[in-house]
Amino acid sequence: MTKQDKHKWYQLDSRAVSNLVVVCIGILLYLGLTHLPQVRAAVGSVIDVFAPFIAGFVIAYLLNTPVDYFERKVYRSFKGKRALSIVTVFLIAVAIIAVLLQLILPQVADSIRQLFSNLTAYLNNLTQTVQELTQRFHLEGEGLTNLVDHYNDFIRSLSSADMVKRATEFLTSSAPELWNFGMSVGNGVVNGAVTAMTAIIASIYMLSGKPRLVSQLKKLIYAVFPEKGASRILTVSGRANQIFVGFINGKLLDSAIIGVLCFLLCTLLQIPYAVLVSVIVGVTNVIPFFGPIIGAVPCLMILVIVNPWAALRFGVLIVALQQFDGNILGPKILGDSTGLSAIWVLVAIVVGGGIFSFPGMLLGVPTFAVLYSLVKEWVERRLDEKGVCANREPQAPTTVK
Fold first, then answer.
1. Confidence (pTM)
2. Could you give the CA distance from residue 263 to residue 267 in angstroms, rounded to a whole number?
3. pLDDT by residue (tens digit) across 232-276?
4. 253, 275, 262: which is closest to 321 by C-alpha?
């Protein structure tokens, strides 16, 4: 009896198994798309359960670079250098948070309080300034006056007095539901505190056990996948980690420098509410490409009310800061960490923001950079197999007449 005769009808070869896997994946994808709300609810429930560990992983991932630096450079001759590095980095993080809470946040809150308390005077000054400009330059006064009136009505609708009035009406009409809402808020605060503590503890365990966890993960990958596939997965993972670490750490440092520089220049140019506008500019600068524009819009709306000439100075300042960040500071800090051109950065931000909102705008660029590098590598490999130089445009075959 030949070997082919011994083959049973129910035994599948590798090609049949591959086709079966593709069919199963297609069926699962179809079911997921047709039952998208149920899938989202299930994924949301799973994420809620693992939320402390996801947050712990994010904290550990952000602090891993400084921990490695202290371990290699500062405590390399100490016995418990890993533990000392973790303690040092957490102490530095706590100190930074304490500085933010004690110095910056109170000033931001005080600026907001002063802005609302002086809102009526600011609006009157804005109206008077527009009238003076209209008379001096012989402008069309009716159109500007209507525009200012609409702007004043919009700002007054956001004023503290109107908000208090609306809050009072809401409290009187919704008193029975407030108790349940208060209980929900209390439970949320307690759950949030527990989640935060669990996340911090999980991040400490992840940082301290990183060498062991990485080794175990590598063993698992090599046990599940073929040796060539496992090596490929680890190579891609290492490249993705390098891109993400370089981009996120560089962007945080870049945004911090831009925020401090904005505060110093605002103070020098006597722009009101320097701390408030600098915090807005620094935080929104984390978003690539659109960050300065997103941060400049609310700042200009605030400064136009307070002092239109200060708003003009701030507009010039933010344009200069954007040029400095985009052409000098950003490339100096980030370098070529993503390897993307401006058009692909724009595509990554728009698509990522449209799907995942703010996190997508922040993480869309490094994610797209990883996909871009993989596609580029595949294209170059295929061109090499066909004998086409990657730096030369392939020529179309000539036809003989």
1. 0.65
2. 6
3. 888 888 888 888 888 888 888 888 888 889 889 988 988 888 888
4. 262
The full DSSP string for 261-277 is HHHHHHHHTT-SSHHHH
Instruction: Render pLDDT for 326-355 as a digit per residue (tens, 0 to 9).
Output: 778 777 776 666 667 767 777 787 787 777
Distant-in-sequence, close-in-space partners of 34: CB < 8 Å, separation ≥ 6:
none
Nearest to 220 by CA among 303, 243, 192, 212: 212
Is the CB of residue 53 less than 8 Å from the CB of residue 202? yes
HEC secondary structure over 345-397:
HHHHHHHHHHHHHHHHHHHHHHHHHHHHHHHHHHHHHHHHHCCCCCCCCCCCC
In Å, the largest CA–CA distance within the chain is 108
Show the tokens assigned to 377.
């590598």
Angstrom distance (rounded) from CA 67 to CA 13: 49
| Structure-block tokens of residue 109 | 């809150």
Q: Which two tokens stand for residue 161?
A: 């007095």
